[in-house]
Amino acid sequence: MERIRRAVWNGPSPGFPRDGSGSRGRRPRDGISRWAIALVVGLGVLWHYAPIAIGAKPTVLPDYGRVPPFALTNQKGEPVALDALLGHVWIADFIFTRCAGQCPMLTKEMSQLAHAFQSDPSVQFVSFTVDPRYDTPEVLSRYVAASGVSSDRWIFLTGEEEAIQRLSQEGFRLAMGAEGPPEEPITHSSRLVLVDRDGAIRGYYEAADARDLAQLRRDAQRLLRHPS
Predict the structure, then answer these.
(1) Is residue 126 within 8 Å of 92, Cβ to Cβ?
(2) How far apart are CA 128 and CA 5, in angstroms?
(3) 130 near 96, Cβ under 8 Å?
(4) How do residues 20-58 score in pLDDT, each as one tens digit?
(5) How far apart, in Å, are the Cα atoms of 137 and each of 40, 108, 186?
(6) pLDDT digits (tens, 9 = 90+) for 147-156
(7) What is the Cα–Cα distance from 127 to 144, expressed in whole angstroms?
């Protein structure tokens, strides 16, 4: 009976088979080794690339060319030229007050952007009318009041139809025409345009796309921090 008890006691422990040298299997130790190697490799990669990430320069925004000089009139009847915007980061769009299509959406998004940047006087907002024959300064002034526009850094511009069409198509490279649907008889772009302090166009953003609008905010902040 004692021999049987010793045989049972001296048998290999279940789950831990012995190898040829008499020691137990190395599976747990091998697992720890693999984790240690992975940790060392990971730290090495981090050590190598960390200086690059820390010292990396911000991505440079594309340059789509400069806005050509213009001389228009704002909603107060005051003359406004491109020179008045130089030195400011500004966001532009093209709308008209009788528009029942995408213009209300454009004005809403511009209003939200104006609110987001209300604490930074370096950012200006400019809306060009594509219906200048109807959108006189008086009409634009009423539109501003009806839309609840509160920012004094947001100007609405009107002027000669030919000048605005040329500015839209050749200056901003945005479509503008007169063959739209009944709710929007004048076709125009629904994109917002980001312009830097030197009057260079740095980005186009679809006003109906939330991701584009978020990118616009980031890019505007980038221009405020890094002018180039």
Answers:
(1) yes
(2) 98
(3) yes
(4) 444 444 454 555 566 655 554 555 544 444 333 444 445
(5) 69, 20, 19
(6) 888 778 999 9
(7) 11
Residues 35 and 77 in one domain: no
Residue with tokens 């190395």, as numbered in its chain: 26
Domain-embedded: residue 63: no
- Name the residue among 133, 149, 124 with its Cα closest to residue 67: 124
124 and 204 in a single domain? The answer is: yes
- The answer on 183 and 76 residing in a single domain is yes
Q: Are 167 and 128 in contact (CB under 8 A)?
A: yes
The C-alpha atoms of residue 95 and residue 102 are separated, in whole angstroms, by 8
- Parallel, antiparallel, or unpaired: how do β-strands 79-81 and 123-129 relate? unpaired
Is residue 153 classed exposed, middle or buried when 0-12, 13-18 and 19+ CB atoms within 10 A define those classes? middle
Tell me the per-residue pLDDT of 99-136, one tens digit each, with 9 for 90 and over: 988 999 999 999 999 999 999 999 999 999 999 999 99
What does the buried/exposed string (b/e) look like for 121-137 if buried means 16 or more CB atoms within 10 Å of the residue's CB? eebbbbbbbbbbeebbb
The number of domains in the chain is 2
